[in-house]
Amino acid sequence: MAGLAALLSSMPACIIPVAPDFQDPDAFPQVAPWIHEPSQPFAQVVSVLGSSREGVIFSVQVTDLNASDKLYARWIVNPPGMGKDPSLETVTLLQGASDEVTDRLLPTVVLVENRIFCGSDTWKSNPLPQQLELVVADGEFTGDLDTVDPMKTRRSYANWTILLECSSTAGASP
User: Which residues pair with 47 in a beta bridge?
Assistant: First the structure.
């Protein structure tokens, strides 16, 4: 009997906690929105013909893995630093009263689009190649162009080159 007691006392014991130790999982890291599935291939030259009153639609899907993020989008014509001709004006195209495009929950997938056509005051039927840039951010823009708070906001970019082939009789905006 003494041998059995000595054998049992030398075996490892199972320790049962008094209360479970629950912990919240680590927060999902803040990531930039993902721009995908463009209607026109990224970084390509896209011709806009003067005979087409419908113009060309540029649309993308945007996905954000962070459920609490609201997405904001800005379309910028001829953004600075894109190797543009200095005679071309930089213009931000208006989305409406706000740049916000969604406030849905995970997974956030939203369609962002813009129509480019001959006769638009923004494009001025300039025959030079022009740049179109889409900026999508997971926080509000804080100033002109793509300015955001870099400590709280992540951005993604998509770019195209626009070649306007407009006749002088191209229609005004639809």
Answer: 163
